[in-house]
């Protein structure tokens, strides 16, 4: 019995009139993205970070510098004499050519 | 397949074309989708055409705004649109605290000769069904309308309503039982006397 009612409901479905369709079409055209303009999409943190660091070239330089820094820290070259320095047997600052009390500071102390 | 100027293209293809700025896709999609959205909103909103038009306009606006971020293959346009439409209708009904109409207030079918005219009888049946649908809880009404009037499959209705397929079956079965109970009392006046 219900099927006849459902058939009737389908046959009697409300149809949008011309004015309403024109209004809907105007809405659609007003909201339509402009052709050729890049639509604002979702950009992740990585996509924002790469240009901020100078693109891929800048990023590769940064990675190389970090790697060298890490390597120097892990396995320092003997010429730096860091082992002696840590052990207290290395050259004092003065011997390394670094004056711990500069002329400027001496002048200040002596008035 | 919908019959329109671009009937060889799916809704999803047209929406992608729309997002690229294709005006003909905008027109074809509006022609294709507006009648379905309007009809669904009308049935959900108890036959209130003005409200149904407002909901249709709002639902389509949301579709246009979602178009640039639409992910192909993620959802069917119609599934998404039925869901948005139903949610807008339910929001309106709850805000307006619209109560179901009194069945006694449903327009009576005229008893005299013109009621025998087939077209009038059909309109009367559609009107009686709408009045009976209006008495159902929102979710039952939505499921019955989608299944038996819009003709969607249970899995698609499940996606629209965000429930399982068995829950859809349960909702439609209960809805149909309620409709039969309401409409069986009006069979004679609606021209079902003597036939089944």
TrEMBL record, chain B:
Residues 127-179 form the RNA polymerase sigma factor 70 region 4 type domain. GO terms for biological process: DNA-templated transcription initiation. It comes from the Bacteria. Keywords: DNA-binding, Sigma factor, Transcription, Transcription regulation. Residues 31-98 form the RNA polymerase sigma-70 region domain. Pfam families: Sigma70_r2, Sigma70_r4_2. One of its GO terms (molecular function) is DNA binding. Gene3D superfamilies: 1.10.1740.10, Winged helix-like DNA-binding domain superfamily/Winged helix DNA-binding domain. Belongs to the sigma-70 factor family. ECF subfamily. PANTHER family: RNA POLYMERASE ECF-TYPE SIGMA FACTO, RNA POLYMERASE SIGMA FACTOR HI_1459-RELATED. This is RNA polymerase sigma factor.
